[in-house]
Write a structure and sequence with these properties.
The longest helix is centred in the N-terminal third of the chain and has 18 residues. The protein is built from eleven helices and 14 strands.
C-alpha cells in the first residue's frame, strides 16, 4: 500500500516537539513521569494536511532530540514525494518512522477523500473498549486507584517493582473483583521470583501478563508452566525476530512506535496471527493523534490498550471521544 503520487516540490513538512501534562503521576518499573513529550510531523500538500505523532522511548535508545533530527533528515525525501513503501526501506522501525508513516496515511486520506480505514480494507470502525492503566505504587495506593476506576471493565496493572508485587496483585483483585485484569511487569520480574508471580496472577484470575522478564532473558519462559497467557511487549518490535517468540508467549503487543508506523503494524499483525499469536494493540503515553491510527488494528485484537489520552491532564483539540473506557473512531479533523 503506497502513497498517492504527488508532484515534487508541492509538499511541505514541519516537525514539532510538544509537551502534554499527565494527570497526576505515571509510574512503571523503570521510573515515573509527569508529562508526555511527543514529536509531531505535519505534511501539507496544498489544502490537504496529514499529521502523525510519535513518542520517543529511552528504553529503545531514543531521545526526543534524536527522533526529531531523524525525521527532519527525511525532509527532502518527503517533500520530493516519498511514499510509505519507500519509507519502510529508508528508515528503521521506531518512533521517527512511525510519525512519518502515520502522517502519510493521513495525508493520503485527506487528498483522496477516502478514509484511512477504508483504504486499509476495513469497511467500518466501531467503538471499542480500552484497558485503563493503573500506575505502579504501594499496594494500598493501587487498590485506591482501582476503586476509583471501578466502572472500567479492563484494568492494566503496572507491576515489576523489586518487592511487593504479590501484595499488589492481591490488593488490586480485592479492589476490583469483577474487572478483567492485565498484569504488566515491564521486564521487572526475575527467574527467582517469576513462578511466584505467575502463580499469584493465576490465583487472582488475571487474563494476561505482559512482558514478565527482560527481553534479553525471556528464553527462560520456554517450557515454563503458566496458567495465564503471556504477552510480548519489549520483546517484539516488527516482524524481524517474531519467529523466536513462538513457544515463549501466547500474544504480542503491537505498538506503532515500535513497528515504525501503521504500515508495518498491519504486516506484523498478519504475520503474528499466522504464527498463532493473539494480538494486543498498545500505545506509549501520547495524545489522541497517536492513538487514532492504532485504532485501525483494533478489530483484530484480543485486547486494546489505547488509554493514553485518559491519562493526560489535557488532550489535543478534536481528540478521540471516550465514554468511560469506550473509545470511538477518530473524526477526520483529528486523523484519517
Amino acid at each position: 500500500m503506497g502513497s498517492a503520487r504527488t508532484l515534487a516540490g508541492t509538499l511541505a513538512m514541519t516537525v514539532a516537539v510538544e509537551r502534554f501534562p499527565i494527570a497526576g503521576r505515571f509510574a512503571i518499573s523503570r521510573g515515573a513521569r509527569t508529562e508526555a513529550v511527543v514529536v509531531t510531523v505535519t505534511i501539507a500538500d496544498g489544502g490537504a494536511v496529514g499529521r502523525g505523532e510519535c513518542v520517543p522511548y529511552a528504553r529503545y535508545g531514543e531521545t526526543v532530540e534524536g527522533v526529531a533530527a531523524a525525521i527532519d533528515a527525511m525532509r527532502s525525501a518527503v517533500e520530493d514525494g516519498l511514499d510509505r513503501r519507500a519509507l519502510q526501506e529508508r528508515m528503521p522501525a521506531g518512533a521517527a518512522r512511525n510519525a512519518l508513516d502515520c502522517a502519510l496515511w493521513d495525508l493520503d486520506a485527506k487528498r483522496s477523500g477516502v478514509p484511512a480505514h477504508v483504504a486499509a480494507g476495513i469497511d467500518r470502525l466501531r467503538p471499542v473498549a480500552t484497558a485503563y492503566t493503573i500506575s505502579l505504587g504501594k499496594p494500598c495506593e493501587m487498590a485506591e486507584a482501582v476503586a476509583r476506576a471501578s466502572d472500567r471493565p479492563i484494568l492494566k496493572v503496572k507491576l515489576g517493582a523489586p518487592e511487593g508485587d504479590l501484595e499488589r496483585i492481591a490488593a488490586v483483585r480485592a479492589a476490583a473483583p469483577g474487572a478483567t485484569l492485565i498484569a504488566d511487569a515491564n521486564e521487572g520480574w526475575t527467574e527467582d521470583n517469576l513462578d511466584l508471580h505467575l502463580s499469584a496472577c493465576a490465583d487472582a484470575g488475571f487474563a494476561l501478563i505482559e512482558q514478565p522478564v527482560p527481553a534479553a532473558k525471556d528464553e527462560m519462559l520456554r517450557g515454563r508452566r503458566r496458567a495465564v497467557p503471556l504477552c510480548a511487549d519489549e520483546s517484539v518490535h516488527d516482524r524481524n525476530g517474531l519467529a523466536r517468540l513462538v513457544g515463549l508467549y501466547e500474544a504480542v503487543n503491537i505498538k506503532l512506535d515500535k513497528t515504525g508506523g501503521l504500515t508495518e503494524a498491519f504486516a506484523l499483525a498478519e504475520t503474528a496471527e499466522r504464527a498463532g499469536f493473539a494480538l494486543m494493540i498498545g500505545c506509549m503515553l501520547g495524545t489522541s493523534l497517536a492513538m487514532a491510527p492504532a485504532l485501525l488494528l483494533a478489530p483484530r485484537a484480543r485486547f486494546v490498550d489505547l488509554d493514553g489520552p485518559l491519562l493526560l491532564a489535557r488532550d489535543r483539540d478534536d481528540g478521540l471521544r471516550y465514554e468511560g473506557s469506550l473509545v470511538h473512531p477518530p473524526s477526520p479533523a483529528l486523523w484519517g
